[in-house]
Amino acid sequence: MASHATQSFENSFPSAEELRPETDPVTGIDLSLIKENLKLTPWERILANDDTVNFCDLGRAAMQQRRHAAA
Amino acid sequence: MQQLNQLLARLIKAEVEFVLVGGLAASIHGSSLTTRDVDVCCRFTATNLLRIQRAFEDQHPVHRMRPDLPVALTPEQCVDLKNLYIKTDLGVIDCLGSVLGVGEYDEVFKHSIEIELPVGKLRILDLDTLIQAKEAMGRPHDIITMQHLKAVRQAEAGGSQHDDQP
């Protein structure tokens, strides 16, 4: 039998459906990311793009280093 | 390291006549896609192209497809140019004389909006026209960008782009 605390957690915890990010039903585009973007200023969006790309480049360089080390 | 923000800042500071189009414009409109270059539609006059050249002269500008060839245009060379693809230390910038589905600079300008950035005023292709351009280009990645932009338009309107579908 579930304890009172577990029952309370189960009752209050949102469903998987509620926790799933909102996506477009046809394209699968994550609308929640777009809505987050729309909260930023245009300049913040430009900087976020640069940050993301630069972070990906760091990750790719690290991956390449790992491959070289393994070879 | 890519610094597209600085590419834009330099174009603005150099008073280049341009409209931001392409992936970065999509990103500014709210798309969650990222991009590695700046696409601008600009007036292809010698004055304007030489302003672009001056804006990046300390950033080792080369022709993207000929990295052995520095960008060192003369006014005479500018006359025949339709597009200019530049790679700099700050990143890549593609300068286009026209945008498919929209037209040449004057038409693109008509369909642009002005936004205020910390580095100055920027003209950017408006959302509907950017969607139209991406649709006209029709390559797989343009279609994906177009779908994102349509999602942005719907998000701004407060719904999903397929709300009207059963």
Helix/strand layout:
The complex is a heterodimer of chains A (71) and B (166).
Chain A: H1 4-12, H2 16-19, H3 31-38, H4 42-70
Chain B: H1 4-13, E1 18-21, H2 22-29, E2 37-42, H3 46-55, E3 62-63, E4 66-70, H4 75-79, E5 83-88, E6 91-96, E7 98-99, E8 103-104, H5 105-110, E9 112-117, E10 120-125, H6 127-137, H7 140-157
Parallel strand pairs in B: 2-6
Antiparallel strand pairs in B: 1-2, 3-4, 3-5, 5-6, 7-8, 9-10
Helix pairs in contact in B: 6-7
Kindly name the structural category of chain A.
Answer: mainly alpha
Distance between the termini of chain B: 46 Å
**Count of individual helical segments of chain B:** 7
Major beta sheet summary of chain A? none
Biggest sheet descriptor of chain B: 6 strands, mixed
* Mean model confidence by pLDDT of chain B: 92
DSSP helical segment count of chain A: 4
Unreliable stretches of chain B:
none
Q: How widely separated are the two ends of chain A?
A: 55 Å
Give the proportion of residues in helices of chain A: over 70%
Sequence stretches where pLDDT stays below 50 over 5 or more residues of chain A: none
Supply Rg of chain B: 16 Å
Q: Tell me how many strands of chain A there are.
A: 0
Apparent shape of chain B: globular
The 3D shape of chain A can be described as extended
CATH class annotation of chain B = Alpha Beta
Strand content of chain A: under 5%
Beta fraction of the residues of chain B?
25-35%
Mean pLDDT of chain A: 83
